[in-house]
Amino acid sequence: MRDSTPAEKAEALIRRYFAACNDGDHAALVDCFTKDAVHYFPPGLPGAPWRGASAIADGWVWCVKTLGSRWTIEKVLAAADGREAVIEWTHWKTAIGEVLRGDEWYIFNDDITKIHEIRAYYASPVDKAEPVNKLHDFDYEARGYALRPPSPAPRNL
Questions:
Q1: Which of 15, 55, 88, 117 is the residue whose CA sits 20 to 30 A from 79?
Q2: What CATH number has the domain bearing residue 75?
Q3: Is the residue at 156 inside a domain?
């Protein structure tokens, strides 16, 4: 059995992070980040950027509890050296009937065991009047993107 490439390690870490988000697992989320990690967001999110592993975990656990948040990873592209990656994602806010699509740029620590920085970009400005925020005239279904959340949000957090 061969060792994972650096790019494979980066993708596996991102997938572990998203699993922890979907589980609303605070400890698992903290474990995905360096202590001084920063998660940047487009303008408009109160309290952004989120600074520190615990603050990032607090934010996503709140989203799961309050918004019924679920996430899917649509695409992943990791640098050959594993130090950076970019993904496309969908954020399903099941409790309020809102869907947001976007991208994130990741920077990892030297041994690709922790996320040091995330920069989030939304596919479109958030429009609360739209149930699904997305790119205009982009055929998500034909391209194989998720059209529903991966599972119901956990209720026992």
A1: 55
A2: 3.10.450.50
A3: no
